[in-house]
Specification:
It is a single chain. Helix 6 runs antiparallel to helix 7 and helix 9 runs antiparallel to helix 10. The chain starts with 5 loop residues before the first helix and ends in a 7-residue tail after the last helix. It contains 18 helices and eight strands. The protein has one domain: Serine Threonine Protein Phosphatase 5, Tetratricopeptide repeat, CATH 1.25.40.390. By secondary structure, the chain is mainly alpha-helical. It comes from Butyricimonas paravirosa. This is RagB/SusD family nutrient uptake outer membrane protein.
């Protein structure tokens, strides 16, 4: 019997692997040729990869609210979570989270590679015109996205040490491993993104407006594509990576991606939070939270553990400065925690589903545009992105058209703190900016070093 793709029929016990890359299933399953004989089988397998990504080991907790958010210092941890906020990689909780992220991410990468292999193997399967192309491009973008998140965790910032080698690039289900430098990885990732984006631009329903659904086969209508790595999300990922290069070419590339997303006009800011306190309509890509996912995690942290927002959020000053800022809707009445954002009443209004886990969203696109323009010495352009973003949040800012580069950068950092509360993005910004110290959850400053910024790679 031939091996079946893991994610369709079984959950592999990752912790049982003696080697972190030994992720191929060992059990015997039904014939993969018989199983992958229809388009729906490929779509179901692709959906399984998103299920992996939304797990608590990855974006459902460790790479968001339940883990890396504490490294950004926006939340005051309890004693159990304190080692995360203090970068104690020798602690049991950090060792477990690092191992979970490493193993689970490479397992999801394996799932991408295996499905790509099956696409190549089963050429005779009939697809709706354009559907095969969309899924192939989507898989390649997802693979880039996963590798890049590993780079953001296990490598120093690109601008500080582009020759650093840490993670492995995996592009097949075989045993071969490529340990590339950050520079080599980013070059490869941007090249693959460029190729995949061109295909998505031609076929992705979110861009073309043409549904690829058929009777009984759903998931390829334009409105469904916000749940998948679509054309605009791929552009956003490319902008994120290009910005991190710290080069003029990178800034130009990032800004071009930003402008294309904004000119497309598909996404718009929330004008009223309603019940959607995470502003899901703004997510270029959102992962559906498991039924007991973010809600249960939010209750555990904010209700049971009593976790509160830290002083770096400066919530009282923020409220005085911009009392109508729509982001206050995601906080409780005393502005101490984010429980409303994750409680049972907070749903994605357009679907009635639990809150999405944001992977990349409209606010980041504006902030990438502002930072890229600033680094290109286009202060008026930076002001335009930034002031538009602040206005869309019904907020206020002290920057004006004549603001200096320093003042604009300070506002960008302030907005990163406010915009991504609970989403695990701020730590990556501090790292990308190579800050030698960052404000701590307890009011101090933390002196940052390479050893704190870079997660240690687990031993095999």
């Amino acid at each position: 019997m031939k091996k079946l793709l893991y994610m369709v029929v079984a959950v592999l016990a990752l912790s049982s692997c003696n080697n972190w890359f030994d992720v191929a299933p060992k059990e015997e399953y039904i014939d993969e040729d018989a199983l992958f004989s229809s388009e729906s089988a490929f779509r179901n397998a692709l959906n399984g990869i998103y299920t992996e990504l939304r797990s608590s080991e990855l974006f459902g907790s460790n790479l968001g609210l339940g883990g890396i958010e504490f490294m950004g210092q926006t939340l005051v941890p309890d004693s159990e979570l304190k080692p995360i906020a203090e970068f104690d990689y020798d602690s049991q909780i950090m060792k477990e989270k690092i191992e979970q992220v490493w193993a689970s991410m490479y397992h999801a990468i394996y799932s991408c590679n295996n499905l790509l292999r099956l696409f190549d193997k089963n050429q005779d399967v009939i697809f709706i015109k354009g559907a095969r192309e969309v899924m192939l491009a989507e898989l390649k973008v997802l693979r880039v996205a996963m590798h890049y998140d590993l780079v953001r965790l296990f490598h120093p910032a690109y601008t500080s040490e582009p020759s650093f080698k840490g993670i492995y690039w995996k592009e097949s289900t075989g045993d071969e491993l490529q340990q590339l430098s950050t520079q080599e990885l980013c070059t490869k990732m941007l090249a693959q993104l460029t190729e995949a984006i061109a295909i998505l631009k031609k076929y992705d329903p979110i861009y073309t407006g043409e549904s690829l659904n058929s009777d009984g086969l759903f998931g390829m209508a334009p409105s469904n594509r916000v749940w998948k790595m679509n054309y605009y999300a791929a552009l956003g990922l490319k902008a994120r990576i290009a910005l991190a290069l710290g080069t003029e070419a990178g800034y130009l590339d990032a800004r071009a991606c930003v402008d294309e997303i904004l000119e497309g006009g598909y996404f718009s800011f929330a004008t009223s939070a309603g019940t959607d306190l995470a502003f899901s309509r703004e997510h270029l890509l959102g992962l559906p939270s498991p039924k007991e996912g973010l809600q249960a995690l939010g209750y555990t942290l904010f209700r049971d553990k009593g976790v509160v927002l830290s002083p770096i959020v400066q919530v009282e000053e923020w409220k005085q400065e911009a009392p109508d800022d729509i982001r206050f809707r995601s906080m409780n009445n005393t502005l101490q925690n984010l429980l409303p954002k994750y409680d049972s009443l907070s749903i994605a209004v357009f679907s009635g589903a639990p809150q999405q886990i944001p992977y990349i969203k409209l606010g980041e696109i504006y902030l990438i545009g502002a930072e890229a323009a600033l680094k290109l010495n286009d202060l008026s352009g930076a002001y335009a992105y930034l002031s538009t973003f602040v206005d869309k949040r019904f907020s206020k800012t002290s920057i004006v058209e004549t603001s200096t580069a320093t003042e604009l950068m300070e506002e960008i950092e302030r907005q990163y703190i406010r915009e991504f509360l609970g989403e695990g993005q701020l730590f990556y910004c501090y790292k990308r900016w190579n800050l030698s110290s960052i404000p701590s959850y307890d009011g101090r400053n933390i002196e940052m070093t390479k050893a704190k910024y870079v997660w240690p790679i687990p031993a095999n």
